[in-house]
C-alpha cells in the first residue's frame, strides 16, 4: 500500500513538473476557458430588465456557466496529460515496467485535481468579476467545499476515461462521448451548490449542502471506480 | 421475421458447412412464439382494451412503451451481470462477454424505441415531445452511455482485450446510472412545475388494460430472448471465424517457413 | 380512434425497428456461418 | 549454470487475429547477448514483447526470470526493460529528471541514479537539458540510463541502433557489453547484421513467427 502511495505521489509530482515546464495549461487551456466565459456572456446576456436591476441573466447563469467552463477545461486537460504520456510511449513504458496502475491513476488524478482546481477557481473568479456578482461571506465555506469536491470528482472521471480513450483510434471524439454524460451529477450538483453559496436567485445556503452531498458521493464513487477499473482499461 | 430460414440439420464432421444461419428448432419455436405475442399485443393493445378514462386512446401507446423500457433495463442488467461473471470468474469464458455485448445491443435498440415512442406519447398527453422528467432524462442518459459501450466494443484488439475493456465499462455504467438518476431526480424535484398540462404519467391500470400490459411484457421478453440468442451466436461465429482464421494463418506461416 | 396516427405509428415504429434489426442479425448470421465448418457451431 | 533467464516453448502470440508468433521456442542464459535476426514482420518485435510479459501467449508456455508468463506477468515486467523505437521518456522534462523518475519507481537511491547517468555519459552538460532538444542517440542513451536506474535484469531492445550515427552505435555497443558483463542479459532484434553480429554472443533467426537455428 505504501509503495503505491509513494509511486502515486511520484506520478503526481512528475505530471505537475511536466506542466510547470511546458505551461500548456497555463498558456493555452486557461485563456481558452476565460474566452468561453466571455463567449457565454455574448450568447446569453441581455440588457437588464430594468436599469440598475442587479439580477441580470448572467448573474443567474454564472454558476452554471462556470461549471460548464470547468468541464470543458477538464476535457482539454485530460487530452493534454494523456498526450504527454503517449508522445514517446511513456504510459506504455510504465505499464511495461509493471508500475502499479492504481498508483498511476491516483497520481494522475491528484495532479489533474490540482490543475483543474486552480483553473476552475480562476474561472469562477472571472465570472464573479465580469458578470458582476457579489460573493457573500457566509457562503464561502459552501463555495470552497463544492469547488474542491467537484474538481476532485471531475479529475477522477477524467483520468479514468482519459486512460480508456488514450490508446484508442479516434480518441478525440471518444473521450467526450464517454465522459460528458457521466459528469452530469457534478454539473447539476456543483451548479446548484454554487448558486446556494452565492445566493443566486435567492436560494439559501442551507439548500446547497445536500447538493455538495451529491457531488461528494460522485467523487467517492469514481475514486473507487477508478482504482479498480483503471488498470484493466489501459492494459494491453 | 416472417419467414424463418429452413435449414437442414444434418451435421457432417468438419466438411463444408451444411447448415447456415444460427437457427435451430428451439429458436424457430421461440420466434414463432414471439410473433404470436406481437400479434396478440397489437390486437389487444389497439383493439380489445378500453380507452383510459382521462388519457383516452393514448394509453394504448403505453402497452408498447412501458414493456420496451422494462426490457431495455433488463437487457442492461443482463449486460452488467454477464460482464461481472466474465471478469470475476476464473475461466473468463468469452461466452459471457458475447452475451453482454448482444444484450447491450438489443438494450440500445429497445431503449431507442422507448425514447421515440415516449416522445409520441408525451406529445399526446403532455403536448410536448420532450419533457425534462427524471425518468425520461435518465433513460436518455443510459441510451448514450450504452452507445459509448458499443463503440468501445468495436475498438479492436484481441477478443480478450475487447471483453475486458467492455466488461469494466459495463460495470462502471452500473456505478454511473444510479448516480445520474438520483441527481436528475433531485434536480427535477426542484422544478416540479405542476401545470395542469401534466397529469401524473402513471395511469392506474386494472382489468383488461393491465392484462394487455402483461401481454406486452411477454411479447417483448420473447423478442428479447430471440434477438439475444441469434445475436450472440452470430458474434460467436464471428469470433470463431477469427480463431479459424488464426489456425489457418498459423498453418500458412509454418508452411511459408518450410 | 382518436389520435390514431400517433398510436398506430408507435406500434409501427416499435415492431418495424425490431423486425429490421432481426432481419439484419439473420442476414449477418447467414453470411458469417456460411464460411464456418459445422464443428465450430456449438448450436448445431 | 543457474536457471536460464528466458525459456519459451511453442509460444503463439496473436496480434488481432494474426499469429505474429506461431510456435516459437528459445532458451537464453544469464549474461548472454542474443541477436534476433529476421525479415520485417517475422515476429522479432512480438517475441520481445512476449518475453517482456506484455503480450499474453495464445498457446505454448514461457518462463522469464523464473516467473511463468501465464500467471506472473506483472513480476516479469518489473524486472525486464523493453526498449522499442519509442524511448518512453517525458520530452518536456530534463535528462536527469527522467532518469530520477524512472529510478524512483523502484526506489533507487540517488547514488544509483548518478551511477546510471555516469555509465551512459549523461552526467555532464546534458543532464539539465530537456530531452526534447537532444539527438536520437542522446535520447536513446537516456532511455538506457532509465533501464539501468530501474535495475532491469533482462534488456529487450528492438532495433536499438536505428537512427544512431557511428559514435552513437559504438557507445551503445559498449553499454550493452558492460550491462551483460555486470550480470544483465540482453536480447537485440536488429537488421544491422554486421554490427550486431560482432556484439552478440549468439545469433538466432526468427522466420515466419518461429525461431530457427541454435535454440
Describe what is shown at a glance.
The complex is a heterotetramer of chains A (about 240), B (about 260), C (about 45) and D (about 220). Chain C is built from one helix and no strands. Chain C is mostly helical and about 45 residues long.
Low-pLDDT ranges of chain B: 1-14, 194-200
* SSE succession of chain A: HHHHHHHHH
Instruction: Compute the CA-based radius of gyration of chain A.
Output: 19 Å
Number of helical elements of chain A = 9
- Using DSSP, what is the number of strands of chain B? 0
Structural class of chain A: mainly alpha
Helix content of chain B: over 70%
Measured distance between first and last alpha carbons of chain A: 24 Å
Mean pLDDT of chain B: 81
> How many distinct domains of chain A?
1
> What is the succession of H and E elements of chain B?
HHHHHH
Please identify the oligomeric state: heterotetramer
Globally, the shape of chain A reads elongated
How many structural domains of chain B?
Answer: 1
Report the biggest beta sheet of chain B as strand number plus sense, adding barrel if it closes: none
Structure classification of chain B: mainly alpha
Explain how this protein is built.
The complex is a heterotetramer of chains A (236), B (258), C (44) and D (215). Chain A is mostly helical. Chain A has one domain. In chain A, helix 8 runs antiparallel to helix 9. Chain B has one domain. Chain B is built from 6 helices and no strands. Chain C has 1 helix and no strands. A 6-stranded mixed beta sheet of chain D has the order 6-7-8-3-9-10, sandwiched between helices. The two termini of chain D are 17 Å apart. Chains in contact: A-B, A-D, B-C, B-D.
What attributes characterize this protein structure?
heterotetramer; B: mainly alpha; 6 helices; C: 44 residues; mainly alpha; 0% strand; rod-shaped
Q: Which helices and strands, and how do they pair?
A:
The complex is a heterotetramer of chains A (236), B (258), C (44) and D (215).
Chain A: H1 2-22, H2 24-44, H3 57-87, H4 90-96, H5 101-131, H6 140-166, H7 171-182, H8 184-198, H9 208-234
Helix pairs in contact in A: 1-5, 2-3, 2-5, 3-5, 3-6, 3-8, 5-6, 5-9, 6-7, 6-8, 6-9, 8-9
Chain B: H1 25-48, H2 59-88, H3 94-125, H4 134-153, H5 159-190, H6 207-257
Chain C: H1 4-33
Amino acid at each position: 500500500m505504501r509503495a503505491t502511495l509513494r509511486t502515486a505521489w511520484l506520478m503526481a509530482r512528475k505530471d505537475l513538473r511536466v506542466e510547470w515546464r511546458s505551461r500548456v495549461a497555463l498558456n493555452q487551456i486557461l485563456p481558452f476557458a476565460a474566452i468561453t466565459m466571455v463567449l457565454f456572456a455574448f450568447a446569453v446576456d441581455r440588457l437588464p430588465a430594468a436599469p440598475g436591476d442587479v439580477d441580470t441573466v448572467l448573474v443567474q447563469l454564472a454558476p452554471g456557466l462556470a461549471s460548464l467552463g470547468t468541464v470543458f477545461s477538464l476535457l482539454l486537460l485530460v487530452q493534454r496529460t494523456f498526450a504527454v504520456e503517449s508522445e514517446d510511449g511513456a504510459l506504455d513504458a510504465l505499464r511495461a515496467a509493471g508500475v502499479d496502475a492504481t498508483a498511476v491513476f491516483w497520481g494522475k488524478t491528484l495532479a489533474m485535481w490540482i490543475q483543474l482546481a486552480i483553473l476552475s477557481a480562476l474561472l469562477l473568479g472571472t465570472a464573479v468579476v465580469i458578470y458582476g456578482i457579489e460573493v457573500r461571506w457566509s457562503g464561502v465555506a459552501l463555495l470552497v467545499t463544492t469547488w474542491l469536491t467537484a474538481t476532485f470528482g471531475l479529475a477522477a472521471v477524467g483520468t479514468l476515461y482519459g486512460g480508456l480513450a488514450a490508446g484508442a483510434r479516434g480518441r478525440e471524439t471518444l473521450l467526450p462521448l464517454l465522459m460528458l454524460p457521466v459528469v452530469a451529477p457534478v454539473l447539476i450538483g456543483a451548479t446548484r451548490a454554487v448558486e446556494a453559496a452565492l445566493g443566486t436567485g435567492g436560494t439559501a445556503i442551507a439548500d446547497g449542502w445536500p447538493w455538495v452531498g451529491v457531488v461528494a458521493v460522485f467523487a467517492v464513487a469514481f475514486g473507487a471506480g477508478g482504482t479498480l477499473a483503471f488498470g484493466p482499461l489501459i492494459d494491453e | 421475421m416472417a419467414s424463418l430460414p429452413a435449414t437442414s440439420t444434418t451435421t457432417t464432421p468438419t466438411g463444408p458447412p451444411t447448415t447456415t444461419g444460427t437457427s435451430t428448432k428451439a429458436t424457430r419455436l421461440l420466434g414463432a412464439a414471439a410473433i404470436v405475442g406481437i400479434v396478440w399485443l397489437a390486437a389487444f393493445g389497439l383493439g380489445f382494451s378500453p380507452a383510459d378514462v382521462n388519457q383516452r386512446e393514448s394509453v394504448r401507446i403505453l402497452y408498447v412503451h412501458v414493456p420496451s423500457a422494462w426490457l431495455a433495463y433488463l437487457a442492461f442488467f443482463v449486460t452488467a451481470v454477464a460482464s461481472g461473471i466474465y471478469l470475476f470468474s476464473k475461466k473468463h469464458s468469452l461466452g459471457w462477454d458475447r452475451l453482454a455485448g448482444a444484450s447491450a445491443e438489443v438494450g440500445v435498440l429497445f431503449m431507442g424505441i422507448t425514447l421515440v415512442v415516449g416522445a409520441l406519447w408525451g406529445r399526446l398527453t403532455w403536448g410536448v415531445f420532450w419533457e425534462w422528467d427524471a425518468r425520461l432524462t435518465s433513460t436518455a442518459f443510459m441510451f448514450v452511455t450504452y452507445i459509448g459501450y458499443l463503440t468501445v466494443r468495436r475498438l479492436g484488439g484481441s477478443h480478450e482485450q475487447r471483453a475486458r475493456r467492455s466488461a469494466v465499462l459495463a460495470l462502471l455504467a452500473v456505478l454511473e446510472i444510479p448516480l445520474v438518476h438520483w441527481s436528475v431526480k433531485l434536480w427535477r424535484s426542484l422544478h416540479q412545475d405542476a401545470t395542469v398540462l401534466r397529469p401524473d404519467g402513471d395511469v392506474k391500470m386494472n382489468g383488461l388494460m393491465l392484462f394487455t400490459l402483461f401481454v406486452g411484457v411477454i411479447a417483448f421478453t420473447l423478442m428479447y430472448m430471440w434477438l439475444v440468442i441469434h445475436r450472440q451466436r452470430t458474434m460467436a461465429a464471428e469470433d470463431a471465424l477469427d480463431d479459424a482464421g488464426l489456425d489457418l494463418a498459423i498453418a500458412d506461416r509454418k508452411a511459408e517457413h518450410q | 380512434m382518436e389520435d390514431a396516427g400517433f398510436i398506430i405509428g408507435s406500434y409501427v415504429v416499435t415492431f418495424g425497428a425490431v423486425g429490421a434489426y432481426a432481419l439484419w442479425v439473420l442476414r449477418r448470421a447467414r453470411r458469417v456461418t456460411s464460411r464456418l465448418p459445422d464443428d465450430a457451431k456449438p448450436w448445431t | 549454470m543457474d536457471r536460464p533467464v528466458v525459456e519459451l516453448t511453442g509460444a503463439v502470440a496473436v496480434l488481432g487475429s494474426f499469429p505474429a508468433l506461431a510456435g516459437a521456442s528459445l532458451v537464453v542464459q544469464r549474461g548472454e547477448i542474443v541477436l534476433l535476426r529476421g525479415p520485417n514482420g517475422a515476429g522479432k518485435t512480438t517475441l520481445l514483447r512476449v518475453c517482456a510479459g506484455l503480450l499474453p501467449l495464445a498457446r505454448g508456455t514461457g518462463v522469464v526470470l523464473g516467473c511463468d508468463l501465464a500467471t506472473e506477468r506483472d513480476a516479469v515486467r518489473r524486472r525486464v526493460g523493453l526498449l522499442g523505437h519509442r524511448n518512453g521518456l517525458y520530452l518536456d522534462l530534463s535528462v536527469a529528471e527522467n532518469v530520477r523518475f524512472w529510478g524512483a519507481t523502484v526506489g533507487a537511491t540517488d547514488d544509483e541514479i548518478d551511477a546510471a547517468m555516469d555509465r551512459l555519459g549523461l552526467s555532464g552538460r546534458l543532464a539539465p537539458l530537456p530531452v526534447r532538444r537532444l539527438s536520437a542517440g542522446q535520447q536513446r542513451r537516456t532511455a538506457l540510463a532509465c533501464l539501468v536506474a530501474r535495475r532491469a535484469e533482462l534488456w529487450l531492445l528492438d532495433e536499438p541502433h536505428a537512427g544512431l550515427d557511428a559514435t552513437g552505435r559504438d557507445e551503445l555497443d559498449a553499454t550493452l557489453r558492460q550491462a551483460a558483463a555486470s550480470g544483465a542479459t540482453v536480447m537485440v532484434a536488429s537488421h544491422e547484421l554486421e554490427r550486431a553480429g560482432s556484439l552478440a554472443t549468439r545469433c538466432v533467426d526468427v522466420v515466419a513467427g518461429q525461431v530457427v537455428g541454435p535454440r
